[in-house]
Amino acid sequence: MSLPGGSGPARREGHMKGLEGLHVLELGEMVSAAYATKLMADLGADVIKVEPPGGERARRRGPFPASGPHPERSGLFLYLNTNKRGVTLDLDSEAGRDDLAALVERADVLVHNYPRPHLEALGLSYETLSRSRPELVMCSITPFGLTGPYSGYRAEELTTANAGGWAYLSPGASEQAHQPPLKTFGHQSDFQGALAGASAALAAVMRVRDTGLGEHIDLSKQAYVASFLESALITQTYIGLTATRFGRRGLNPWKIFECSDGLIFLATIEQDQWERLVEFMGSPEWAQLEVFDSFAGRLENADMIETFLQEWVSQWTVEDLYREGQKRRICFAPVLCVSQLAEQDQLTERGFLVPVDHAEAGTLTHLGAPYRLREPWWEIRRPAPRLGEHDEEVRAELVARPVETRRPAPPTAKRGLPLEGIRVADFSWVWAGPFCAMHLAHLGAEVIKIESEQRPDLGRRLPIHVPGQAATLDSSGYFNQWNQGKKSIQLDLARPEGIEVAKRLAATCDVVIDNFATGVMDKLGLGYEALRRTREDVIVATISGYGESGPRSQYMAYGPAIGPLCGLSSLTGYPGEGPRELGISLGDPTAGITASYALCAALLARQRTGRGQHIDISLWEATAALAGEGWMAYAMTGQPPERVGNRDAQMAPHGCFRCQGDDAWVSIACATDADWAALCQVIDPALARDERFATQAARKASEEALEAAITTWTASRDRWDVTHALQAVGVAAFPSFTTADLESDPHLDERGFLTRLPHAAVGERTHAGIPWLLAHGDDGVRTPAPLLGADTHEVLGRVGYSEEEIARLEAAGVLR
Q1: Does the domain spanning 254-343 belong to CATH 3.30.1540.10?
Q2: Closest of 237, 766, 763 to residue 475, by C-alpha
Q3: Could you give the residue numbers annotated as active site?
Q4: Which residues is 353 bridged to in the sheet?
Q5: Where are the beta strands (DSSP E) in 591-712?
Q6: Which pLDDT tens digit goes with each residue over 724-771?
Q7: pTM for the predicted model, two decimal places
Q8: Strand pairing report for 215-220 and 137-142
Q9: Which member of 107, 146, 513, 564 has the greatest number of CB atoms within 10 A?
Q10: Can you spell out the DSSP letters for 631-650?
Q11: pLDDT of residue 403
């Protein structure tokens, strides 16, 4: 029935779960609000989910077992709603609204994904609630945010994937110019927005407990998607180059290859990995050619490399090549179907697959925790609620236990960020760890990046530089994007004196983050057990490809290998074609924001218990947790979903349609028959009378003809004309945004997402900023990314080093 999130028994005597005592109210439908509150419920929060009398939309979504649709057997609903209590309320009735008001009074946190008009009609705008509940934390997770030019737009998952620029980049390295942008399988924008919203919400609860002042997190999923596009947006704003899904990767080889019995992914990021690959292949004559000696040469001759490599790879089985390549520290990863996740010893030994009993759906295996915890808070205590299952129980509680008198916000409470006063030691590099630490900085933490010119962060070395400016370790757009808001100290960890400085610094920090290979921090004497001897309540997050335990913990992984490993690549692709890459290295930002959420939960729990925590985040598990819809289809039917491109299991039309212009597309999704009728009035009223398209089922059966009819209309029109015409009648439509579109988007600009702070090395450049707005905190990134070592003296001085000691360390070469 349940499995703890870490080692040890499910509950230690006298210890509460991390978020026990936190009351959370969930309003909305489908994925974003539900996943945000599932994250909290799985760590012990009391989450009450409100549904209309007929149930929310996810109950009708599926996947369903072979017996057919049933509101208690939707795989998506079952996965999203573990550990919650469910109540049904008719919000069109006075009694239902009264019950809702009582639930709001009881809640510490309100999470919703309602559009603003619906929220205001229920009297639930933050402006209204905060007058009587100044301590309430409200998290709004909506497609475009609650303010700005697009705030009233209708949207589905397809819409936000395109509006945020992700779909235009997918599939990565495509060679087929006629194919449209591709949405990654499932509801990935929703999942990602949920993780970010839940992180910010828990951080805000910390401030409530200190000051009594609540917060409103107004999160835009479009902005959040635009915030994790790897190097694409920065390449646009630094170099003026618009990234696309076509062409070659800048680093080669990087590709899915065919083994004798399946597919395998390979990426070589560093020069030494290429050299080890050549040695592994037996140093063939072709690989000795001078043109392959450099990154540039391998890019220019990628076709030749891939031809030779494919011939060599085809002689191996997937498992043999995976095992032998990893022995040599080469990033090979099998392209797994979700059905193969259950066969992976790494996942099973880390307890990632969890059986859950449900009164209607029976016993089903769920995907488990996206992290492992030393203090074992994570547990499936109950399955998803049946419709109205807890109506009487919750109403009885409201009568028996009136809301306690709440402490109003004191007059001295000032605007501020939730994590102000929290100090973070950031030992991480490249993307996953820096992405995590950057979000903590966005929330107000003081983040100190520990780095060295002896082995500089790969992000500082990636060649994304402003043309005409000298390339230095301070000028890479990649580093400058993912390290905003931080401080930098130089410290050579290869020297014993450097380790001692690092230990002294870490002892003053609340949080320590790293994403080195498994075991590196322990060898340096900076692992969790060593750090907690100095500071018992320290919270440590360790991010790695496979996790710190298990038979494959020593395997290496980069973010792009995780889509293949977790099953998302196999679920993503055009109909009739094979698995595809996801357009970005999804494993990195997913692990990063998952770590950010877990750290905020641990900080909140420490505020109550005084106890620290060790968080072990695996890129594989963090990302696989977001493939729940595909996994549940397999768990319920024995078969994974088919690859359907941009099509949907139920909605039709649902896709990207060509418009006027070079590679110009618009996304269109009709969720209901009413949406279809509205679309027909704009395109051609005769379509509404066509029997092939009369019902949702009929449209699905005639999808090719349906898409051809719509393309005939869109192909001669500008994508914005299509968008405006369809949004005017309430149909979800939006252009497939490029990075150039994002850089100049008036909506993102109005919401302050596009950040333009002066930087000493590169001047004023546009960066992706913070995807949410706060009611009581200053919005916007506070400082640009730091110059290498710019804060060394200031930070070490505050840790207790005198100027004489700092000068001695500098002279000895420790601070370099």
Answers
A1: yes
A2: 763
A3: 588
A4: 367
A5: 613-618, 654-658, 665-669
A6: 999 999 999 999 999 999 999 999 999 999 999 999 999 999 999 999
A7: 0.95
A8: parallel
A9: 513
A10: HHHHHHHSSPPPP-TT--SS
A11: 57
